């Protein structure tokens, strides 16, 4: 089971040859939630994309029932309905070479699918039936609940130190807020959930006043009317889904070391920021983070410093928005929209002997750019790169539709094409705007760190004592690298013993 509940659709060869010649976006902004729509009409595309967004997520999990939102959505999208059992649904979807599923984030749950228009009538019935008439059987409940528990206990804790480190950082950064637990929930929270809890949560949150319809591709008006009419049969309840995310101030450098027997150290660090998609400073910070650590890009600054020049790991990245499943994805997925984001730096695992050095190197680079800003050349190069690179973020109609649903979440007036809007905002940036935004929102004195490593007590001692961390290479390096290494190996980071805690891996995500 993948934590993001990522939907893997069977590819249709026809999709590969599509050329989009007309594209429009329309929204019905009626104040009744059940009439709000994000419509991305592309007549030439024979694939119809669905993205039904409910304003609910893991942040709405009741205390002690962490994981209820995700479990409920999974029992809608990956289980039986009152009309069809699970195996019958799969049998009917197979000839259409398609599927449907759900993605649960902190504040949004989306039901996504896509199908060739020749199969739209049958698919529409199955897709909407999953939302409207989940059976909530004991067998499905036990299957999905056990799979989710297995994901937390075994897969997340023990299969990927990279994902473990990133989720640990988010829990740590958002301690005592509704964002604190992962979307899948906690072990104790899941164990306490009953099937009656699921039914009640579905009735309260998946109601006719709490969704936005998203459709993309070559659909016609009759499909819009069908979806709207069918979803109006949901329960007529209202509930406040807004959550208040007030993070505690970070006081200095606060560290959580997750102790685990492993061969390398995964490092993540960051802090909450008050900048969201659509804010003027968002685009300036997007350019900065692209230069500092564009995901999976060899030209980014941190990548060059830590991997390119020194070969310490696979990659080093920075983000101003949550990037889920970064270990396997090369570009961000939409529908992780949140009202509070994190500036995050992710250092992919390094050998234990290099962990202190790599951490120092990244923090030193962060300090230098905050104090000095980006140069004109760095700015211009990144602006040109990002203007071209961002085109690839939404290569399919499903992805474009996802971004337009996010624009609805954030209230971004992008005239129906967020990617073009983003590119235009990037093209119009100035170096002064970017450096001002860095000064305003990025800092290096109050930061939280989550690191997955073995021999945690020894690492804590080195951090607190600022023990020098000289480095040796298997092959010669340029003189400028050796000169920089002298500074990096003794770069002072003010870690205090009482702000470095060690947590055994088997205690992570427990409650």
Write structural notes for this entry.
- This protein has helices spanning 68-77, 86-93, 120-132, 138-158, 161-173, 187-192, 195-205, 221-231, 280-293, 301-308, 355-372, 376-389, 397-410, 418-427, 431-441, 456-465, 479-488, and strands at residues 24-28, 37-41, 47-54, 100-104, 109-116, 211-217, 253-259, 264-273, 316-319, 341-351, 447-453, 495-504.
- It is an alpha+beta fold and 511 residues long.
- The chain has two domains: 13-231, 2-Layer Sandwich (Cytochrome Bc1 Complex, Chain A, domain 1), CATH 3.30.830.10; 253-507, Cytochrome Bc1 Complex, Chain A, domain 1.
- Helix 1 (68-77) packs across helix 7, helix 3 (120-132) packs parallel to helix 8 and helix 9 packs across helix 12 (376-389).
- The longest helix has 21 residues, at 138-158.
- It is globular.
- The two termini are 20 Å apart.
Main sheet: strands, sense, barrel:
6 strands, mixed
CATH class of the largest domain: Alpha Beta
Mean pLDDT over the full residue set: 93
Q: Count of helices?
A: 17
Strand fraction equals 15-25%
Distance between the termini: 20 Å
């Amino acid at each position: 089971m993948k934590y993001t509940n990522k939907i893997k659709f069977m590819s249709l060869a026809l999709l590969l040859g599509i050329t989009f010649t007309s594209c429009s976006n329309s929204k019905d902004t009626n104040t009744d939630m059940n009439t709000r729509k994000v419509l991305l009409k592309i007549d030439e595309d024979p694939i119809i994309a669905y993205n039904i967004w409910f304003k609910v997520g893991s942040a709405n999990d009741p205390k002690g029932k962490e994981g209820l939102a995700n479990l409920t959505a999974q029992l809608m999208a990956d289980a039986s309905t009152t009309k069809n059992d699970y195996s019958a649904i799969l049998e009917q979807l197979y000839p259409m070479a398609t599927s449907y599923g759900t993605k649960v984030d902190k504040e949004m749950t989306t039901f996504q699918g896509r199908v060739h228009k020749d199969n739209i009538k049958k698919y529409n019935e199955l897709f909407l039936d999953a939302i409207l008439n989940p059976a909530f059987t004991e067998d499905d409940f036990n299957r999905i609940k056990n799979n989710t528990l297995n994901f937390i206990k075994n897969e997340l804790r023990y299969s990927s130190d990279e994902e473990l480190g990133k989720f640990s950082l988010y829990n740590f950064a958002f301690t005592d807020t509704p964002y604190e637990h992962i979307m899948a929930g906690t072990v104790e929270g899941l164990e306490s959930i009953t099937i009656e809890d699921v039914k009640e949560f579905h009735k309260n949150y998946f109601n006719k006043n709490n969704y936005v319809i998203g459709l993309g591709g070559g659909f016609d008006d009759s499909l819009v009317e069908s979806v709207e009419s069918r979803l109006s049969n949901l329960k007529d309840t209202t509930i406040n889904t807004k959550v208040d995310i007030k993070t505690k101030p970070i006081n200095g450098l606060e560290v959580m070391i997750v102790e685990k027997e492993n061969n390398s150290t995964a490092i993540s660090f960051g802090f909450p920021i008050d900048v969201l998609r659509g804010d003027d400073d968002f685009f300036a910070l997007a350019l900065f983070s692209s230069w500092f650590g564009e995901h999976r890009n060899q030209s980014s600054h941190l990548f060059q410093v830590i991997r390119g020049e020194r070969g310490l790991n696979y990659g080093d990245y920075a983000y101003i928005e949550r990037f889920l499943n970064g270990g396997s994805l090369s570009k961000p997925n939409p529908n992780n929209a949140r009202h509070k984001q994190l500036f995050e730096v992710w250092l992919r695992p390094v050998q234990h002997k290099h962990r202190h050095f790599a951490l120092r190197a990244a923090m030193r680079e962060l300090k230098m750019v905050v104090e000095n800003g980006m140069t004109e050349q760095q700015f211009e190069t990144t602006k040109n790169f990002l203007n071209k690179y961002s085109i690839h973020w939404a290569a399919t109609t499903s992805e474009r539709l996802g971004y337009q649903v996010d624009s609805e979440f954030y209230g971004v007036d992008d005239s129906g094409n967020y990617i073009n809007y983003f590119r235009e905002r990037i093209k119009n940036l100035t170096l002064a705007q970017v450096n001002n935004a860095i000064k305003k929102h990025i800092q290096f004195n109050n930061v939280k760190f989550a690191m997955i490593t073995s021999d945690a007590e020894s690492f804590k001692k080195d951090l607190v004592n600022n023990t020098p961390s000289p480095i040796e290479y298997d092959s010669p390096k340029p003189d400028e690298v050796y000169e920089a290494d002298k500074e990096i190996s003794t770069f002072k980071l003010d870690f205090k013993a009482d702000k470095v805690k060690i947590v055994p891996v088997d205690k992570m995500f427990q409650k």
